[in-house]
Structure formats: C-alpha cells, structure tokens
Amino acid sequence: MSDEVYEKIRQAMNNGWPLKLPKEKSVMEMLKIIYPTEEEAKIVACFEQPMFDLKSIKKISKITGYSIEKTKEVCEKMSERGVILRMGKVYGIFPAMPGLIEFYFVTGKDENMELGARLLHENMAKIAPEWFASGYPFFRNLPSSSLKEKLIKIDETIEDVGQKILVYEDIEAYINRCTSITVVNCMCRTVGELLGNKCEKIEENVCMALNMAGDALTPYGLGRQVSKKEALELVKKAEDCGLIHTINNAAGPDAPMMICNCCPCHCEVIRCLRDFKNPSALARSNFKPKFNKELCILCDKCVNICPMEALWHHYSHSGKDSDERIMYKEQYCIGCGLCAHHCPKDAISMEKVYNDVPEQTLLGMFKKIEETRGH
C-alpha cells in the first residue's frame, strides 16, 4: 500500500483534533503496523475526521468498492483489535491521542504490538512536540486526594483566586460528578511491559475512562466498570504508590474524559515534559508546596517521590546543620501534591496561589488549544 493512503489517514486523524500527528517517518511506520493490509488502510482512509465522521457498512462499501460482506468482515476484525471506532452499527476513526494509540495497546490483540511499542517509545521525542505546541495544554494535573488535609491557606493576595477548592482541584468531587467510571489497563505501562521494562510501582490497573469515554469501551469488551467509592480507593492507592492524576483540561460537568494515574517511570507524557524541560505543557494545578524547615527531618522522601524532579537536597556548604535543607525549583513544579502526601512529618503543606480556570467544555478546550497553537 502506498504512503499516500497512510498520509491521508494521518491528515484525517488530525482534522479537528488538537493533538496532531506530525508528518514523520516513524508515524507512517506506526500506521503501517496498525493497518498492515490494503483493505484495512483503504477503509480507514475513507473517513475525513476522527470521532464525528461516522459511516455505515453500506456507505464504506460504496466508497471503497469492496462488497458489503468483505467490508463488514474487515471492520469487525479491526474493531476486535481496537483500531477502528465502532458506535452501534456505524464506524469511524479514532484520533491518534488520546484514542488510537491507547486502544491499540490496551486491547492487546495484535501480533505486532511489541514492534509498535518499540517504535512509539523510541520516537516519542519526534511526535510529542506537536502535542505540546499550544499555550493551552490538553492535559491538566489534578492534585492528590490529601489536598484538603494538607491545605494551609488560600492566598488572598491573588486577585479572584477564590475561597474554595473547585471541582477540577478536588479528585473526590471530580469522581462524584461522573456518570460512569471504567478502569482500564495503562497504555504506557503496557508499552513498558512489552519492552521488558515492567512498572514496579503498581500492579493493579488504576487508569480510568469516564462518562462517554468509558461507555465507548463497552463494544470492545474492555475495562471494568467500578463504583465511585472504588474509584476513589484506587486513586488513593495510586497516590500511595507515587502516581499523579492527569485529566483533560476542561472543567464543565460534561467535560471529564479520563483520569490517567501516571507513573513517572513509564508515562510518555511525563517523560517528554522532563526531557524537554517543559512542565508548562501540562497545566499545573493552582497549588504549590510550602515547606516547614522546623518539622523537616531531611529524609528525602519528597525528593524521591517528585515526578518532575522539582526538589533537591541542599547540603551545607559551611558545615552548619542549619544550612542543610530541601530546595524547590518552582518552574518545574506541577502542583501534584505528592510531596505533601508522602511527607512523614507533615512538613510540607499546599497553598493555593494561582487562579487558572479551565475552559468549561471539550469544544471550548479544543478551540482554545487551536487559538494558542505555536506551530
């Protein structure tokens, strides 16, 4: 199959979706692994936009020239592998991210998955800059569940900062507003395991698809629906294991799509933020840590748990014990609260110092990302 067909697929996946796939050799190779046959590539290439351009088997058959029987057979096989969107009796294509890449690895039914995992991992540095090209990030950090316990104050010098913790700052409230929650295995940790690098932080599946995103998994037999109580227990377990919560950067009641509980050792997003020294590509929370030197025992738990390597142990130059302390690189901090959550002496508290308010809707989020795109 010619590269022109895969280029058409790449362009269609980018159409109207904020996280773009660049025109790059490894992207083409990845698409060829996911859609290896001429029939699959030709069918996928007949769609013009992810998620919203839905077609019946009859319509796909007419465009491609394949019989209805052949079209149905190929679409069903792709659906089983998680590489085409199925909604009732109609089909469509996924966006690349979040979407196709997650479904492909989470479904786990392709014989070339190990090759795909290696290709993705080795070339993420070429792909990710397009995902972080906007002044308005797609992803947002949601602080740990212990935020309320660790909160010392809301800085009243920040204009309109608000005198409460809002829904997109409170993981319990965020979960409680969801209509359905589906736990799925993590794409990033799956990729690591395929490459012989299993995550040692957590064994259990803790990533979650929410509302319509979770309901979309049902036709594929993926995931496990859980109660809000179990979901909260899982996010607390994730925090205890040193994982951070990542959501899409929109705040309205219909906006939640996911809670990715990300480990710094395998999460491709966190890895790229660190490698590019660009933590602002992930929307920080509105909180930052405050340190009580009198309570600190210099155990380094906060230094070791920080996913962004924003903390470091400053040893004394003069030999005086009073000069030794934990130092904080504010420009790298995303306000996840793991340092405070894991401090054994409550020497770290969280302070609300910003008032960054996300867009309310997904469409508003998409529009904002496009308006502030740098390239």
Report the biggest beta sheet as strand number plus sense, adding barrel if it closes. Answer: 6 strands, antiparallel
* Radius of gyration, taken over Cα atoms and rounded to an integer in Å: 22 Å
Instruction: Give unreliable regions as ranges.
Output: 154-163
Structural class: alpha+beta
Tell me the number of helical segments per DSSP (H or I, 4 or more residues long). 16
Q: What general outline do the C-alpha atoms trace?
A: elongated
Q: Give the ordered list of helices and strands.
A: HHHEHHEEHHEHEHEHEHEHEEHEHEEHEH
Number of strands: 14
Strand order of the largest sheet: 4-9-10-7-6-8
- Overall average pLDDT: 87
- Residues in helix, %: 25-40%
What is the strand and helix layout of this fold?
Elements: H1 3-14, H2 25-34, H3 38-44, E1 55-56, H4 57-64, H5 68-81, E2 85-87, E3 90-92, H6 96-107, H7 113-131, E4 139-142, H8 147-150, E5 151-154, H9 171-176, E6 181-184, H10 187-194, E7 207-210, H11 211-215, E8 224-225, H12 228-240, E9 244-248, E10 258-262, H13 268-275, E11 287-291, H14 301-305, E12 311-314, E13 325-328, H15 338-342, E14 348-352, H16 362-371
Parallel strand pairs: 5-14
Antiparallel strand pairs: 1-3, 2-3, 4-9, 6-7, 6-8, 7-10, 9-10, 11-14, 12-13
Helix pairs in contact: 1-2, 2-7, 4-5, 6-10, 7-13
